[in-house]
Please model this.
Amino acid sequence: MKTDDLVVIFRGCEFPFVIRPRCEEQKQYELVGACYVDGIMMGEAMWAMEGNSDFERMFLV
Model:
């Protein structure tokens, strides 16, 4: 990972991925790959998101 990389969980996946901003003005991202984050590897993050302001929803097209 590099500074400004984001850890995201795509709907339907049980593990997180790293994405990297490519162009901030157009909100473009590059998929870096899957990663390990203790505590959210088997879908736990999806349960933790319910009512938790530490998580942010993001839509990628």
About this structure: The two ends are 22 Å apart (CA to CA). The chain has a mean pLDDT of 78.
